[in-house]
């Protein structure tokens, strides 16, 4: 396997690059107890100020006050703020992408793609600000009108994961702002710099647009202090993105206070490859989804369910491509696979591979640990879908299983707790249609991989992925409160269902 063996960019260079990007985005000098690190060298860059429980409470109180004003601003005027945010994100695309690379270890092309996603969702939200529409329904009573109206919800608490350090915030925030909500954001502790830079750009947009103060606050804090956000009755919606473990801790607490939770949790995404598939196209789609972002996307392809007749040919192609994947410093030319986020991620990958082998799996390619936080993406042929295959390991491991009948493939596909993204590679339309119906995921693709969703569609998944939907389509409804209105414009007072009360 070819790779750039050692790190090229030093921690000092990363620190300088980060400083330049932060300053360009409007973040001043930093100092504090939270260590911002880069997985590129595995070393600390800066100390960042953290938020204690009182600071989180203050942020919520300020956001609640700001909501009282913001909710009364007409939605298209709210859209003007998001439009300005989109312009600033465009202007600072390279700066933010730099920080994404430094903190999350993404290769520059993927980091730029993440910021483009932020710009795209701003565009979407601006259009949406003129389309927050409700329905009218026929009333059963003469001289009456029945309709639904949508109203701002309140303070939205956003908890986000390290692997999409800014896109997920923007999915939530751009939509929440046009819906008339205010936001308190708890980013991953692993990616606080990108969070501070994004929040600074929104603060600037808000100032320039004359929007109320405190529409958006960022609280750099740990999971324990984040309970203030989770438990606060003043936070109407907790939109939480992260592991199933995090969702299992957060959801019951929000439910206990009858709050609203929008959960975007782990995936265990699979592709089915049918005998009729275009194997060249499939191989390209699989490699991007399985090894891209070093296997650290929620939509990363973790399982390949391939028909026996084409399994050897496909696996041979894939192992050939994997053997030439360039692994290493994301800043090095042509790198495709950057580092894992931290030591825990590397260890989890090694443990999963050992378990897979114990379960009878054969590592066909990759799996070795390189210097630092770099690993070789692995392909492992499994005799059966054992527990480790049913578990999301947030690292580049692709488990290969084989099938004979499509029903068998679908059964294997659905036999995991998670339900985020899925795909089938086939040129048989009947098979494609059957899979579109049978997959139990929130995202079901044909002839593309499992990752790389566009913002126009609703994003999210079923089962332990949490059931939430963010981003495009009608996902905005989660950020608003629905009211059903009945208006009597007659001189009579007929009661529904023909009830009389005189
Ligand atoms: P994580 O669960 O460790 O952390 C995510 C966020 O939740 C962090 O900000 C963390 O501090 C916070 N957190 C953790 N426990 C908490 C608790 N009890 N209360 C409040 N906050 C808590 O996840 P991660 O390692 O940062 O990210 C990887 C995971 O996120 C993977 O499982 C991946 O699939 C998932 N993810 C899902 C989506 C999606 O849209 N479905 C998108 C991105 C990432």
TrEMBL record:
Gene3D superfamilies: Aldehyde Dehydrogenase, Chain A, domain 1, Aldehyde Dehydrogenase, Chain A, domain 2. The active site is at 264. Keywords: NAD, Oxidoreductase. This is aldehyde dehydrogenase (NAD(+)). The keyword Manganese does not apply. Pfam families: Aldedh (PF00171). Homotetramer. InterPro entries: Ald_DH/histidinol_DH, Ald_DH_C, Ald_DH_CS_GLU, Ald_DH_N, Aldehyde_DH_dom, ALDH7A1-like. It comes from Solirubrobacter phytolaccae. PANTHER family: ALPHA-AMINOADIPIC SEMIALDEHYDE DEHYDROGENASE (PTHR43521:SF1). One of its GO terms (molecular function) is aldehyde dehydrogenase (NAD+) activity. Residues 34-482 form the Aldehyde dehydrogenase domain. PROSITE patterns: ALDEHYDE_DEHYDR_GLU (PS00687). It comes from the Bacteria. Its EC number is 1.2.1.3. The keyword Oxidoreductase applies. Belongs to the aldehyde dehydrogenase family.
């Amino acid at each position: 396997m070819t790779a750039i063996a050692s790190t090229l960019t030093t921690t000092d260079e990363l620190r300088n690059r980060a400083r330049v990007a932060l300053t360009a985005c409007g973040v001043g000098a930093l100092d504090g107890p939270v260590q911002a690190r880069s997985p590129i060298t595995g070393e600390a860059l800066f100390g960042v100020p953290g938020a204690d429980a009182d600071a989180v409470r203050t942020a919520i109180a300020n956001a609640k006050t700001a909501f009282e004003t913001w909710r009364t601003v007409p939605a298209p005027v709210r859209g003007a703020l998001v439009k300005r945010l989109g312009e600033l994100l465009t202007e600072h695309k390279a700066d933010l992408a730099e920080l994404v690379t430094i903190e999350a270890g993404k290769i520059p092309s993927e980091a730029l793609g993440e910021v483009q996603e932020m710009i795209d969702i701003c565009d979407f939200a601006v259009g949406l600000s003129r389309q927050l529409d409700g329905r009218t329904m026929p009333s059963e009573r003469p001289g009456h009108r029945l309709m639904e109206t949508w109203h701002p919800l309140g303070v939205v608490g956003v908890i986000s994961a390290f692997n999409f350090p800014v896109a997920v915030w923007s999915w939530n925030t751009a939509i929440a702002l046009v819906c008339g909500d205010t936001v308190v954001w708890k980013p991953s502790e692993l990616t606080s710099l990108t969070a501070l830079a994004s929040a600074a750009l929104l603060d600037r947009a808000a100032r320039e647009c004359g929007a109320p103060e405190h529409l958006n606050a960022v609280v750099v804090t740990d999971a324990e202090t984040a309970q203030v956000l989770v438990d606060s009755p003043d936070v109407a919606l907790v939109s939480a993105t992260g592991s199933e473990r995090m969702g299992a801790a957060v959801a019951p607490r929000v439910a206990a206070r009858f709050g609203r939770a929008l959960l975007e949790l782990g995936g265990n995404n699979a592709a089915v490859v049918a005998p009729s598939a275009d194997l060249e196209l499939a191989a390209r789609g699989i490699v991007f989804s399985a090894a891209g972002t070093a296997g650290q996307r929620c939509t990363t392809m973790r399982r390949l369910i391939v028909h026996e007749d084409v399994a050897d040919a496909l696996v041979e192609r894939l192992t050939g491509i994997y053997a030439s994947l360039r692994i290493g410093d994301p800043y090095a030319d042509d790198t495709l696979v950057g580092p894992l986020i931290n030591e825990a991620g590397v260890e989890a990958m090694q443990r999963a591979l050992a378990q897979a082998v114990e379960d009878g799996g054969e590592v066909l390619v990759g799996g070795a640990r390189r210097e630092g936080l770099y690993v070789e993406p692995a392909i492992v042929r499994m005799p059966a879908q054992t527990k480790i295959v049913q578990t999301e390991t947030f690292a580049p491991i692709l488990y290969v299983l084989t099938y004979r009948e499509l029903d068998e493939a679908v059964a294997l596909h659905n036999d995991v707790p998670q339900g985020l993204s899925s795909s089938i590679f086939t040129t048989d339309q009947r098979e494609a249609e059957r899979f579109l119906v049978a997959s139990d995921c929130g995202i079901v693709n044909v002839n593309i991989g499992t990752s790389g969703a566009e913002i126009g569609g609703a994003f999210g998944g079923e089962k332990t992925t949490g059931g939430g939907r963010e981003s495009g389509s009608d996902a905005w409804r989660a950020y608003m409160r629905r009211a059903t209105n009945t208006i009597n414009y007659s001189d009579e007072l007929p009661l529904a269902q023909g009830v009389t009360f005189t």
